[in-house]
Fold these 2 entries.
Entry 1:
Amino acid sequence: MESTPTLLPTTALEDLPFISPRELKALHASSLTTVGDLLRIVPRRYEDRRTSPPLSSLANGEYVCLQLRIYSAGWRISYKRYYELSAGEDQHPQGPRVLLRWFNMPYVAKFLAVGMLLSVYGKLRSVSGKWTICNPDFEILDDTEQAGVRLAAAAMGESAPGTLPAPQFIHTGRIVPIYRSVAGISARAMRTLVYRLLAALNPDSVWEDYDTAPSYPMACALRDLHFPADEATSHKARLRFALSECFARQFAVVWRRKQTKAHHGQITATTNYYCKELLESLPFSLTAAQLRCIEEIRTDMAQPTPMNRLLQGDVGSGKTLVALCAMLMCFESGKTAALIAPTQILAEQHYRNFCRLLRSMDIRISLRTSDRSDDSVIQLDYPDQSARQDTSPRLLIGTHTLLFPKNRPTNLGLAVIDEQHKFGVAQRERFIRSGNHPDVLVMTATPIPRTLTLTIYGDLDVSVIDELPAGRGEVTTALRNPRHMKRIISFLHAELAAGHQAYVVSPLIEKSEASDRASAIAEQLRWRELLPDATIGLLHGHMNAQEKDAVMSSFRSGDIQLLVATTVVEVGVDVPNATVMLINDADSFGLSQLHQLRGRIGRGSQKSYCILLSSVPANDPAREKLEILCNSTNGFEIAEQDLRLRGPGDVLGTAQSGLGAVQFPEWLADTRLIYRADKLASSILQQDPTLSMPAHAALRRRMQDFPDESVTS
Ligand code: ADP
Ligand code: MG
């Protein structure tokens, strides 16, 4: 096709004569400007269009690739005008005809003529007793004999890996790549374009920062990726690209970790004066796991390098107290410690909790949150209301507001980020790299599958609270159909009568036309009728800060018995007297979200009940996740199941995990691949810590793009 293989990954698409201005515009609109951009588009899937067996053995509704000779052609009109060919197999001249119909594609008529041999691909259907394929993909096999030979060869997977198919077999007669659609470019044009670029590609061009598979050259791997000879070849090529994708991720992780360690942080040396006083005042003693984590944190904070640590523990394992101890150590050494919570409800809860726990100590505690509706700063100081400019050390509790540099205390020694999964990696990074390099402790109750820890939290040291406090009441989880409502109502009635409290959670705030899911507002009205004697509160994300706070305090104090809410209560809320969590339309929530919601109960010593209401039938896939929840209370186990059900891409969500776009999610959690990539990354940095070797120049450039002192908001 193109005579000299001169294209480089950096060659601009506009320099290529065979791309029309219209196509170019469409490509640019999708941010595809270079040869590399286009060739790096990974086929979403492949279609096996290798030739099908003879017509006589095919069935209605099958996708087939047939080689057919055109016998007649013409325009037809039924409810629409269309172009129709009647064609048949050369091997069976007296055999059945196939009608090929093209709707809305008048240009097809210009290409096709009676007598031509075609390779067509599409869905074979029997329409009024005749085989018909609508809008088939096709290629003209002008040279009859050659075509026959090639078709047979393609069917046997003749072509060696890395070789391109003969030009007439781009769309049929082979395994064909299917790309995500690019607006303005047909699937066929896209495939042709990729083919032409591959044909003209300079085989020696440099493609990557670092070649993770030198024995499998890029040019060859790209051909196998787009036009594989068989399944094994596409798998091999995809794995190769998945490794380099994984390497890029792990390299960034290893690099970040190294960078943090290179900074000079703050040394926090304490006598544990406040910690001891706190622990002595508690009505319970900490678990061994909590104490171990506190010790790990203490050791880490005493180091001259900044702490960068993850505190992982299932819901209810008591992370807050561990964090508070760390904050007290920081305070004792004369610096401010900040705790950042994902919601205002949670920030207020922490604030009250800390004020109560530390009331006998002379410690300044401040709350700083901002309402989502207006960005004004509400400041509630306790015990005194002194000026905000005051930089004397304190415990500062707030929401994401604290992430903005202007709200960040100058003498920050420790930043604790609660429920880290509700923030992003970038936000964590912001703290780690901010001004005086404070210690950073991130907490999460959303266990991620073990295989992914190295990727998501690979730059952090990890402390795990792997036991729950003793004396917790058992939690029973049950899946119920709304038909059982009568019994559920009397059950709730009994629980409230026994002095306990309950949550009713619904997926929506208000009833919406678009969905028949339960809404919190409608539920509140309903429960007022169902339980006329109970005090019922309402909590959702559209209420303002004061309203939310008022409702939460009434629930905490027991004035509200039944709290009807949305998932605003999903994380962190701690009301030990609540024993029932009723979840409406439970199937509409994710597995880890349900686990979090269930984590709101079972915090006291009484037995608790989580009721999952759902009307999905027994054979519905959504039912499986609800059953998993009924059978396990272990967050790690649930995370692994979630991974199995949804795949890593969906489990992680790209924004929260900071993964960005993942091209090969099928390998995201592949332990062997991750370890391989991680080892490779570590060995490069060990061998060349400053990345000054010429071979690592591109890697160094990319790492320098990492935001340092990133303070933009
Ligand atoms: P999470 O890890 O989910 O954030 P919290 O820190 O909110 O859990 O703790 C849950 C509840 O357990 C709180 O009421 C807390 O006071 C209590 N708690 C924490 N540690 C212990 C312990 N060692 N023994 C008994 N109760 C504890
Ligand atoms: Mg918590």
Entry 2:
Amino acid sequence: MKKIGVLTSGGDAPGMNAAVRAVVRTARYYGMQVYGIERGYEGLISGQITELETRSVSDMIQRGGTFLKTARCKEFTELEGRRKAADTLEAYGIEGLVVVGGDGSFRGAKDLSDDFGIKCMGIPGTIDKDLAYTDYTLGFDTAVNTVLSAINNLRDTMQSHDRVCIVEVMGRHCGDIALYSGIAGGAEYILTPEIPYDLNEIAKSLVKSKLRGKTSNMLVLAEGAGNLEEIAAFLTEHAHVDIKRTHLGHVQRGGSPTMADRILATRFGVRAVEELMNEKSVSSAIGIKENKIIAMPFEQAFAVKRETNTELYNASKILSK
Ligand code: ADP
């Protein structure tokens, strides 16, 4: 393989730049030409492409967001859109593609590969950590640390005023940002979509803790686990506590990637290019399992079912008592 392309697609995540940097430098190291495609599949269809050199990705490893920009592209979900994308790749002589993105982006990569025989490698870049075939995704560690820093600040002020606080965090249908930041931040309650919870029980427990003299409590709510306003209203009414609500929002998506995300991005990037070069390999999702970098054919990766981390849930239950 002589020419490869790299793009970032879907929701942005800290560490995407570090991954693109690793892809570019690995490709150059092995003597390949590498093209950066801007705005994900949209740029692939419209030909927003520039050649990247080793120095094009200088001063990138520490930056959040994605310098290649990202987009959502409806046209690419249809065969005709993908045909235009394949034509662009052919015009540039690009034989292999690295796609940094989430589940949707991987489905697009698989379709492009199936329909037009373009070898694609997917690097999981999403703060949600909602891809079951891999233990970690790029951006998750940074997002959790951003949440943690907010929780630390909130604890200080909540403690001073004897208040209860609910922090809503991202994660779509996946509760891992809430679970990890809740445990690391010492939250008393962690509400996620994976484990059913009973607001009556939580209200009772808040009343009991007030009677014990504990006046400040922290609840971390995953966005997919309920409505922040409704939960706050219910607990105010039934537990008679002063509740402050914090919706962290997009601040969780930004920021300089942590060491863990930079290392992961680097390992993923090197492996993605090596898989493209390997004549025996097929289009695959790159991931990490038990600290080993893996490459799993897309079909197989999509079939892996998410498992609830019962050990961490148990730990959070034990420690919040
Ligand atoms: P993420 O990659 O973060 O999950 P999206 O779900 O928005 O983000 O997907 C990013 C892009 O990938 C979409 O805008 C679309 O172009 C493409 N895509 C998503 N789902 C599919 C699909 N089922 N088939 C083909 N392309 C898809």
